[in-house]
Write a structure and sequence with these properties.
With 211 residues, this protein is an alpha/beta fold. The protein has seven helices and six strands; from the N terminus they run E-H-E-E-H-E-H-H-H-H-H-E-E. The strands form two sheets. The protein has a four-stranded mixed sheet. It has a two-stranded parallel sheet with strand order 1-2. It is globular.
Length: 211
Amino acid sequence: MCGGGVVISFDYSSAIDASALSNTPSEHLLLLQASIFELPLREQSADKCFCFGVLQHTPSAKMAIHSLVKVLKSGGEFVCDHYPFNKNTPFNTKYWVRPITSRLPHKVLYNFGKRYIDFMWGVFKWNRRTFAPKVANRINWRLLIPDYSSENLSEEKLKEWAYLDFFDMLSPRYDRPIFMRTLHRYLVEAGLTEVQTKKGYNGWEGRGKKK
């Protein structure tokens, strides 16, 4: 890394072990298993903070942002994303079934997901043959069959990704979409200036600088 900087990455779960296995050991990389609400870092010690795919899966996105901003230096940059609440959210099937699936042991849910995807794979392919790509994609996701056909994957990889994403979307205990204006307010209340929020790849994206 230029300038001898250090990247600090953390996760609450044992997923940090997988990260350690997939990264070459380096004096410029520090991996931690830690809670976002109890970071083992000094306040005002970081130049930048990137938080993607995390806030919606915490008990309180507002408090998580406050905790992260504390470790930023004055003038430090903060960037995050959050699942959006919009007109389509009430029709997203995963929110109908997650109150049940999130209570299942992970191994049970994963094995059930594999059996479900295998059973529905004929429907998945029929939809892809019958409807326009965007329509087929929407139908498959509504049927809880993750559809990554646009990624030009082999059928084997398509099914593998479907297994993994079925588990990923139905296992979280917390998943609370919010309005863009709510994310903007959280960032301002955390002490950030020059706050910007916009629609991004995975929902709302927000950024700002610490005072």
